[in-house]
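Problem statement: downstream parser choked on a complex file, so we are re-checking the raw output for the diaminopropanoic acid run. The parser issue turned out to be on our end (a line-ending mismatch), but while we're here, posting the original submission so the record is complete.
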Amino acid sequence: GQKIRLSDYRPPAFLVRHVEMRIALHDGHAAVETTIHARRAEGADPAEPLVLDGDHLSLVALALDGTAIDPRRFDAAPDRLTIRDLPGSDAFALRIETRLEPETNTELMGLYRSNGIWCTQCEAEGFRRITYFPDRPDVLATYRVRLEADHEAAPVLLSNGNPSESGDLDGGRHFAVWDDPHPKPSYLFALVAGRLDVLRDGFRTASGRAVDLAVYTEPGLADRATYAMDALKRSMAWDERRFGREYDLDVFNVVAISDFNMGAMENKGLNVFNHKYVLLAPDTATDADYAGVETVIAHEYFHNWTGNRITCRDWFQLCLKEGLTVYRDQEFSADERARTVKRIASVHGLKAQQFPEDQGPLQHPVRPTQYREINNFYTATVYEKGAELVRMLATILGEAGFRAGMDLYFARHDGDAATIEDFLRCFADATGADLAQFALWYDQAGTPELEVQESFGDGRLTVSLRQSLAKGAAGTGTEPMHIPVRFGLVGADGADIAAEPVAGAAEIEGDVIHLVTAEAEVVFDGLAERPRLSMLRDFSAPVTLRHEQSREDKLALARLDPNGFGRWRALSDLLGEALRAAAVAADEAPLDPRLVEALVECAAEERLEPALRAQMIAIPGESEIARLVGANVDPEAVHRAREAAIRSVARAGAERFRAVRDGLSRSGEPFSPDASSAGRRALGNALLMFLSAAAAEPAEAFAAFRDADNMTDRMAAATILAHRFPGSSEAEEALDRFHDAFEADPLVLDKWFTLRATVPDPATLDVVRELSRHPKFTLANPNRARALIGGFATGNQRVFHRADGEGYRWTADRLGELDRLNPQTAARLATAFRSWRSYEAGRREQARAALSTLAARPDLSRDLRDILDRTLS
Ligand code: DPP
Ligand code: ZN
């Protein structure tokens, strides 16, 4: 495949002002008539032909200003339409007719049918599967779309913008016209048509605009959309309060679709969602599902300003909208729920998803400079690390400076297709800050290391900081960057000590050290006692911290740090280091009793909210331990080390855990998905796991499973049974009951597939083989494919990485099959192999062989080939 490079960017030669579409939907095909009102761009070469993008298109008819074009003037290939001899500077109207087969579109890009419902996905390059078009984000136009379909098959007809005319037609057909007055790039085009139920509500914006809100679902499911609707209204109000952003159309529609590659899509005025991020009920959805719906609803809504009103100039700038919008949805959740709990969850996700990407063969900068397939760059680096960069900007500039920069960005670039340079310039202009060095974060790939050493004497604390960045797979620069390091000096009484820094090499503002050189030192004087240094509070920069700090100090911070994040980090560092060492030494030594005691005390600390306690006592997962080991990983040793740690904590804590768990129960209270109820369930279920491990028998978990009145508790108990007591009659019975109770509910059945695929027992390989022949298994539905293949390959370290390579081969075979239907989802799942080189030699060879066999298939998609080539290189 050809590489697309940022340095090759050229402005469009033709601009499109307005697009009219007439789309007639029929069983088996769709007829699309598109009229593009365009003209040559100012200063463009008058001899340059018009080249439109296509993807597997066949042209039915082509006319210029109402007259068919002489076939000698154009070439229509499936992937490109070239028209010569167009007017030098006059506007023209080009009418293009195409014919599509939505029913055979298994890639789920462009126009397709899911469970009978017509829908579209155009980001990044799906619009070119509907019509020939300059399918690039810097070509913005208004749209008028007329949809026509059989009334019975599609009583609901939706597109972007505001509804205009509608009416009946002959033969049981009807039509609806939608007008989108806001110029938008083609990737934000959408249509939905089908038999749908709807939940309606309304919102009045700060300036008084009445907005009709609707969430559409498959028939019979609209009552599961109430939480999504509530989250939407809260998102709209929050964006007004926090960023002064109001909604700008008369309607806002959300549609839940069963077959969807992504989580959701921010099409202007018509967000299309994977139904997993809309549909909820206490009996079918976990607290994590509720939090996920809230996040994704907010994320897509926030894109209306950061993404739609201001879009990206080209796909290299993807983080301009994604990193910023993730930052905004994280802030929303922090405000709506609990800030520290949210921050810990985000950092945990960053380390689990982005760090391995940044430290392996799929490494790329937050703003990549080249790609072969843009679908493969919707990554944790662009999204999650991109959000961290925006967060650092807020830390560096302070709340008022950050807000001033955002206000200027909205004012200056509304209606633009912008770049990262445009974005940063707004913050520089609004605050006077020089952000040239900060901009390196967008271009230099990899996780910087931050080494910290401290020494104390005569009331003086000297802190030495050193940053370094290794060259990785991306081969980008390694210059020192601007790292904001939030810190605190914690006294013996658990309060922060206010200490004056002595003038040094690094600048300190409030509680932030600005490290801008490779090395720097800061000195605090006049200290009556030696403080404990709490570094990188709230994870103020996405770096690996190597702080030479005694275990005593870490244990003290785990107990005392007034910053909740600091307490969590102290514990998770101690646990991570203990588990890493045990896995490397392949021993099953019990944990340091002082660490165990600290964990048990945290679990019982009444003044800490339960959600935070649950996070603090979580034992790092096997993939996290593997990442900490880093090289020559033996997943069996990782598994044993983790099990030994769980037993240490469980035995020492059993009695107090029991008391805390009993104290949490609120029997008789109706289910509520709010954050504090969810936190109590999280802690209760974490404790149930330890209690079951201590008892070494499944009775209590089985009782919890049987008596559960919500999916969070049911799922937690079932996981304990299946994962800790595989093959027991209790585990078998729970899995069977779960299956039989929820077989008809696809989102719950997905949980069942994942639950079984993630059992850390060698026999699971036979189970996943059998599950791939289950009557309800299909590769055509991305959620189902992810539940089984993704669940196994990313959620079952021990069996995926089996020494005999069978886990790798089974996964690679499934990816080969899936690639023929849905390359985008296959490529995404293939990233499960990204850390293969960090395993021990035997597994490395097995993984290489499995990947090479898959890569040798002649018919691979560009998506999967790109991931495999980079993974193997
Ligand atoms: N739909 C994806 C998202 O919102 C891509 N824009 O992140
Ligand atoms: Zn997004």
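For whoever reads this later: The mean pLDDT is 97.
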